[in-house]
Amino acid sequence: MNDDTYISLAHGNGGRFMRELIESVFQRHLGNPALDVQADAVRLQLGDAHCLFTTDGFTVQPLEFPGGDIGSLAVHGTTNDLAVAGAEPKYLSLNAFIEEGLELALLDRLIASLAAAARDIGVQVVAGDTKVLRRGEGGGLYLATTGIGLALPGPVLGLDRIRPGDAVLVSGPVGDHGIAVMLAREQFGLRGDLRSDAASVLPLTRAARDLDGLRFMRDPTRGGLASVCHEISRATGLGVRLREAALPVRDPVRSVCEMLGYDPLYLACEGRVVAVVAPAQAEALLARWQALPEGSEACLIGTLEAGADRVLLETGIGGERLLEELEDDPLPRIC
Amino acid sequence: MTLRWLLTGRVQGVGFRPFVYRLAREHGIHGWVRNRSGQVEILGQGRTDRLDRFERALTDAAPPTAAPHIAEREVLAWQQLEDFRIETSQAGDRPWIQVPPDHFACPDCLAEVRDPTDRRYRYPFNNCTQCGPRYTLIRALPYDRPNTTLSGFVMCPACATEYRDPGDRRFHAEPIACPDCGPWLSYRPDTAPAPAAEGEAAVEAAAAALRAGEILAVKGIGGYHLMCAADNTDAIERLRARKPRPHKPLAVLFPDEVSLLRREVNCSEAELACLRSAQRPILLLPRTPAPSLPESLAPGLGELGVMLPCSPLHALLLQAAGGPLVATSGNLSGEPVLTDNAEADARLSDVVDGFLHHNRPIQRPADDSVLRPIAGAVRPLRLGRGSAPLELELETGVPEPLLAVGAHMKNTLALAWDRRLIVSPHIGDMGSRRSLEVFRQLVEDFQALHGVRATRLLCDAHPDYTTHRWARESGLPVTPVFHHHAHASALCGEHGIDEPCLIFTWDGTGYGADGGLWGGEALYGRPGHWRHLARLRPFRLPGGDRAGREPWRAAAALCWENGLDYTPPVTEPSLLRAAWQRGLNSPATSAAGRLFDAAASLIGLLQTASYEGQGPMLLEQAAAGCAGEALVLPLLTEAPPWQLDWTPLLAHLRDGRLPVAQRAADFHASLAGAIRDTARRTAADHAFTRVGLTGGVFQNRLLTELAQSRLQAAGFEVLLCRQLPCNDAGISAGQVYEHLGGQRGED
Ligand SMILES: [Fe+3]
Ligand SMILES: [Mg+2]
Ligand SMILES: [Zn+2]
Ligand SMILES: [Zn+2]
């Protein structure tokens, strides 16, 4: 049961509890004109340069999982936040919180992976700090990265740019990361067909950046695609209408979800982009994405509508299911 | 002598003032009658004996849909009065305080429809002050024609004359209509862009299509029905495939002349009277040994939902079609029934071959009411057209107007103020856009029509219920009510009981007072003051919500909890088992509904359900005609709440050597016995004589009747739902009773 006296795990799942925690504690104390708790990255003017600035912490368990590890994730997570804000990432800082007892060879592998990921997308780690935590006080390794990037030319992006009738696209299948990490964490055994989608989204955001009519981009991490749609709906007062038949979900992900009772729309991705674009440019963006290996399975999945303030899923048989904001782990509602 | 009466009850919108007017003329009384704040005030002057007879007739001879009650009577000083008048309502009054449900045509109106010389011969929308639709056509206050969905129809001179004549039975019949000025029908084949026939020809065209095996959407009183010939196996199969609704029972509409109905179902005189009442509900009745309609109407079940025409339109269509018709809600599963012509056109196009529309708008949906005879009475399973809004009188006044938003499935809402409690018709399952829209509309309409604004909301404590979130976002003060407390309080509330009793609240799942998922509880106390004395032994459901549609998951849970082997029907059984062991999406619950699912699955009746309640319904049917023997279920009393252990049932249910019927019957008998045993054990420590049975599980007739007789034999008085459904449709009213009980404080 959640009460408001203590922090619970639900305060970190990307849903309503976390949003309310941020609003009631962090924003209340830290509020200033530049702080935007809704944005992935904040736009700063430093001299003549328009910079984007962001930070992220990484606590994934296990540290290595099919398709990625905490090292590469620490690069992709932060640079993806810069990328979807319309920036070209330049520099990263790195904080490592290492738990006493971590095998050095594993640490070496993870940091090598981090370095390779940074190299691949052309960012440099230019500052850092290392702390060692007593045994039992950390999950082996926690990483935090802060990133700075340069704003690329193109239309101004933001939730406030979104208009009724705009199209919603996703760059590829959803839920792979969430399922792959969960299966790895619970040591259900390796499954060749289930890998995290963790990757840099820079090729996707670069391809989209200069498209007129591009309104907003976001990477659907914690809380998944449904939570991004809630954020959009909440910020714009518009309804988001998704078509179930159009949503890309890989068969192995779907089958594990059905078996365990999870909804892939609420599962984290680490290498996907959700974009909102003017209806006239939707096909153009789809074509640009589909031309890339990272976006070959991109889909047009829905539209923004006026006169509604809910996230709706049009189901196959003509139904319109409400997608509620994520709370805690879902509790059964069938009476 | 001059007398003044104040009448309360259902006295407005039911032709009560014209009735008083005629009565006064008949008895030679002078004076007047007028509406006053939802009541009717009468001034009568005349000889004492005449006034006496007049007063008696006010209640005894009242129109069938009226329910008057003399609240005040006083003798006034003599004043000179010339005649008897109907006075206009007082300015500033709230003249439309009671919103009557939609009723079937009265005998006078039916006679006109059948009379070839009458100007309303075969007119499907005939009505008068004492009959016809109300709830579904009132738009706003006050109840005048411009505020109804008839506002677009200009009365012809003949109708206008009737409407203005105080002596006419259509005096101020707001939905008054005739073929010259009222709504009309149109028939459009799904493939045609425009109507192919209108008026009477539309009925003929629709009937011809039905006879040819087509599936139609037919607009009625509170929404659309999907119809096809009830004797056409092919058409039924197509309807099932298209909706899609592979197994869920379909209701059948029979003509008023009941010989056909009697061939299909066993029906007592009392049940027949219920079918024939102005409410015109669906009644679930046992099928006869050799029915002529196909089994596929209700596959695997021994009962059929039957109803009689609820409007002249339905009677005319039945007559033209020449036989009983399937009449199932025109909606998607769990959503409110469709009411709008264009929306029906758009959303039912893939399901039907044609549309029988009419052009009287439906202001808000009212699905058919559903009742089932259980333990000697016809009990509601769904409040709907004809039965809702349902008004209940509260024992004490409500300190502030309350709006109770109910639960999640089969939801209703309830408004309470003064000493009044009004429950809405069935809305639907709250997970869809349309349910939420109808819910929001009803929230507004219920308050506006009754002239009250709630200052507090009551909602279910489940944080993920759409209604809970809606309440939280409303900005009004919210009091959450635990699901099973609401179930228990609904039962006590409608019986007006405030002394301690033991209530078994058995259902699917609900958010419990300990943050867990309850569903097989025994609560002791009274509204607002419940103690959790006993429960079914909890088990962890692999896959959470999915278990509601996949009874095998409950079977897996029971087996795994007891260390027994069970291979679930999935591609990777070991993965699911491992997830269950680690507690991934496997919440613990004491859900009695899932226990029934597990039993149905273990016996082999079904592994996945295509509609809610399919497992328990098949299980009940499987036990039919077999005398069950009870296994004793241990009551584990180490710590409160005591746990009723279902373990002995497991081996029995899995024993393939025993006949299916035996296992199903023994299962019911065991649970009925366990209920009695639990009541006995708790009665040793607590003073009560009344035991209540509520929650959706007690829609099960067999279980309810067995438990009732066991409890009665043990000396308990048994409480069962009468006016409120025992399922979640009763939660909204229960939230009100629970809240009010809590405010009365501890004794
Ligand atoms: Fe319930
Ligand atoms: Mg971030
Ligand atoms: Zn009538
Ligand atoms: Zn007329």
TrEMBL record, chain A:
Coiled coil: none annotated. Pfam families: AIRS (PF00586), AIRS_C (PF02769). One of its GO terms (biological process) is protein maturation. InterPro entries: HypE, PurM-like_C_dom, PurM-like_C_sf, PurM-like_N, PurM-like_N_sf. Residues 163-308 form the PurM-like C-terminal domain. Residues 40-150 form the PurM-like N-terminal domain. Transmembrane segments: none annotated. It comes from the Bacteria. Belongs to the HypE family. This is Hydrogenase maturation factor. It comes from Thiohalobacter thiocyanaticus.
From TrEMBL, chain B:
Residues 2-88 form the Acylphosphatase-like domain. It holds the Pfam family zf-HYPF. One of its GO terms (molecular function) is ligase activity. InterPro entries: Acylphosphatase-like_dom, Acylphosphatase-like_dom_sf, Acylphosphatase_CS, Carbamoyltrans_HypF-like, Carbamoyltransferase_HypF, DHBP_synth_RibB-like_a/b_dom, HypF_C, HypF_C_2. It comes from the Bacteria. It catalyses: an acyl phosphate + H2O = a carboxylate + phosphate + H(+); C-terminal L-cysteinyl-[HypE protein] + carbamoyl phosphate + ATP + H2O = C-terminal S-carboxamide-L-cysteinyl-[HypE protein] + AMP + phosphate + diphosphate + H(+). GO terms for biological process: protein maturation. The active site is at R17, N35. Its EC number is 6.2.-.-. Pathway: Protein modification; [NiFe] hydrogenase maturation. Belongs to the carbamoyltransferase HypF family. This is Carbamoyltransferase HypF. The gene is hypF.
